[in-house]
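Journal club side-thread
Mid-discussion, someone asked how the predicted structure for our own chain would compare to the paper's figures. Pasting it here so we can look after the session.
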Amino acid sequence: TESTTSFLIDIHIEIALASMFVGSVGLPFLISHTLLTLKMSNQQDAPASTSRQQALPRIDSVTPVASTKWLSLQTIDYTDEKGLARKWDVATRTTKSCRNHADAVVIIPLLKKSGSDQVETLLVEQFRPPVGRTTIEFPAGLIDKDESLEDAALRELREETGFVGEKCKVVPQVSREVCMSPGLTDESVHIVVVEVDLNNPYNFGTPKPHLDEGEFVTVKRVDLKAGLKTVLDDGAGMPIQGLMLFAMGLEIGTPL
């Protein structure tokens, strides 16, 4: 039935999302969370010396080195687990207002039509100068000041693909904050699953994206299960890590 199929697809998506997190940052987060829980359970009985040990590693200072309009190179002075002073160079966005706030949202669109079991998704292909070639990605974009994560996801989805996502009938699902390349940058994002109602007149045919000046994006509409992995394996663009992990997670979860 349609409801059973939808339930199974939701399970596969959860597996795929788990693959994204575990493949990049999820396992360290899981381990850190477990250790933190154990420490908190004994916190009341811990002596002062133990409390001080828990403060390591720690960030001692951050020194700007150089910057352009969009990026800043910084040197972090920190103390490691053994109490040794160390340094680490990091790239950060000049638009980042706070280290505790994510920079952007990554959108996983789920295109559905009433009376059909098929679920499609949207990918964007664009030239990325740092890798010198086109990439295949989920739609994504920076979060504007005072903008909610849900609104940022819906705005970026429409700007990059032209499709209008649901906000009221089906509330977007927002992940916890996840890091992108923690050895190089402090960039972090939230992953937002957005349902797109193909019965909505705004989504008829091929909606027109609303791109910013200098943006050149090719939108690819593919079947979530049958077409996603094929596009990533056979396409000319380089898949972004999170998207490939998502596709592999769907593939792994299909027989379960």
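Post-session note: The two ends are 18 Å apart (CA to CA).
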